[in-house]
Write a structure and sequence with these properties.
Low-confidence stretches: none
Number of strands: 0
Order of helices and strands: HHHHHHHHHHHHHHHH
Shape: globular
Structural class: mainly alpha
Helix content: over 70%
Number of domains: 2
Radius of gyration: 21 Å
Strand content: under 5%
Distance between the termini: 42 Å
Largest sheet: none
Mean pLDDT: 90
Length: about 350
């Protein structure tokens, strides 16, 4: 057992929730951002502007989302170069076999293939053959065997959330908004979770509301401590920056969470806000304005997962635009400071509690 532990340490193979559910999941979201998300935006711009070359660029970027995710996961797992490059084939196969739930299949299979590749890397004199062979054979074989069931399960669960939100928009609007918003601020990837579940439609709109409530909310209520730098880094970056402060005083999280509990059902019940762009946008919030951009691209060109759930292109009206702006920016910027003021009056939150280091 000691020899095995020493081997794992030498190979930098670490069986932990942090390595797989935080590092790998976060990296997967970055891979999705650099392929599917940016590709969707560019393709939609090309379609709306009538520029075929932009449409083609976006299409090519979207096509490599599987390899991009797998390589990003391998990078997070500190895979050797030969393993990392071999994950391109693994990612393509896993995403293709996984269908609508491909991202979850890529996450699971790329982790296994990467760790197997790391285990044999540089152990033989014919490493140039052994390492890519093991990585690709393990990964692609698993893709053929389990990617479809994993993808189907993820897709079914995401569809269940969407249908439940349509049937109970108020209660599910609260639940989805709060849970995804919390995931956004925690050191895990809400974007990757939404993508893995294919979260679109009303549920995607609720998820967007929760993420925006966290990001815009924290950016505004911590303005006195962090000024414009904090406003930008949290409002357009990530509310995850507040995690060290949340650990010190969890009560600073009350205002953003309650705000998401309010804006979620407003999004689902009042404005019927739907995220029909790429599912990853549902968990992006105002990060680079990707959440609102996803809603807009979904109006003109719904994603495959959204189309599968019944989405069609629409001509957005005034209420659609008003709802998007209110849910994404204005309501969080108004409601969160009001709740935070009550928390400060009660002595739960004090000056300096949200100061970013």
């Amino acid at each position: 057992m000691e020899k095995f532990k020493a081997f794992l340490k030498r190979k930098n193979i670490e069986f932990s929730a942090k390595r797989y559910l935080i590092d790998a999941l976060g990296a997967m979201a970055q891979g999705l951002f650099c392929s599917l998300l940016i590709g969707t935006i560019v393709k939609t711009l090309g379609q709306q502007l009538g520029l075929d070359f932009l449409t083609d660029i976006g299409t090519y970027a979207m096509a490599v989302s599987g390899p991009a995710m797998a390589v990003a996961i391998g990078y997070a797992l500190k895979a050797d170069p030969m393993v990392l490059f071999s994950l391109v084939a693994v990612g393509w196969a896993s995403n293709a076999e996984g269908g609508a739930g491909g991202p979850l299949a890529v996450l699971i299979i790329a982790i296994i293939a990467a760790e197997c590749g790391k285990a044999v890397s540089k152990e033989t004199k014919i490493d140039i053959l052994v390492t890519p062979a093991v990585t690709i054979l393990v990964g692609v074989a698993l893709a053929k065997l389990i990617a479809a069931p994993i993808g189907a399960a993820a897709s079914a669960f995401g569809l269940l959330i969407q249908k439940a939100t349509e049937l109970q928009p108020f209660l599910m609007g609260i639940a989805v908004s709060v849970l995804v918003g919390i995931a956004l601020t925690l050191p895990i990837s809400s974007a990757a979770i939404c993508s893995a579940l294919g979260l679109t439609g009303l549920a995607g709109g609720a998820a967007l509301a929760g993420c925006c409530a966290q990001m815009v909310g924290f950016a505004v209520i911590s303005f006195r401590e962090n000024r414009f730098g904090g406003l930008i880094s949290q409002g357009l970056g990530t509310s995850m920056l507040q995690m060290p402060n949340i650990i010190k005083n969890p009560r600073i999280w009350i205002a953003p969470i309650l705000t998401s509990a309010i804006t979620g059902p407003v999004a689902t019940c009042v404005f019927r806000l739907q995220m029909n762009g790429a599912a990853i946008n549902s968990g992006m919030g105002t990060c680079g304005l990707c959440g609102p951009i996803g809603v807009i691209t979904g109006w003109f060109s719904p994603s495959e997962s959204a189309v599968a759930a019944g989405a069609v292109p629409i001509s957005a009206g005034a209420m659609d635009w008003i709802g998007l702006i209110l849910i994404s920016i204005i309501l969080p910027a108004v409601i969160c400071p009001l709740i935070d003021l009550i928390c400060r009056r009660l002595g739960w939150v004090k000056a300096g509690d949200m100061k970013l280091s």
